[in-house]
Amino acid sequence: GQGFIGATPETLLESNGGELTLDTLAGQAAAGRGAELLQSDKDLREPLAVVRGIRESIAPFVTRTEIPDAPVIKALANVEHLYTPVRATLKPGVRALDVARALHPTPAVSGTPKQFSTAWLRQHEGFARGWYAGAVGTIGSRGVPLAVALRSGLLDGARARLFVGAGVVQGSTADAEWNETERKSWAVLGGAR
Predict the structure, then answer these.
(1) pTM value?
(2) SS3 sequence, 122-143?
């Protein structure tokens, strides 16, 4: 009687042999307004925190990391994000699953520093996340594609509980973050508004 659905835009990691690809999405604007993110100190702080957390999480597992100096705009149907691709090479003997365990949860879904922020969320968030913000995908001989279960919903009979989030940093306002989560929910609700 229950099902979990999602429309995630974010890859936790993909591996092909010893090469890893990771996505970071942070900062959000309405469709067609992404360029404003590149001019906003507040919005540019979000990807910095996420990229720093990912770099620290994967460092023990990789020999090489490539991260652009600045994010670019990634346009989706309902929103635009600051996007920073991360490429890395695994150390010999390291499995992509080891990296996924170290990455999860990323700063984009838990905050930073990880131990403090995850404990704070458990105490204050007010609901059990379940599969929301978890890693979904496959693990097999052809690689490991894992996505972050964002913009999702738990279906229970005729009812659905939607899950979306926002990155809160210095300069965030309640109204702007609420509008961000509303726009993100359109991916699950079916279409642009």
Answers:
(1) 0.84
(2) HHHCCCCCCCCCCEEECCECCE
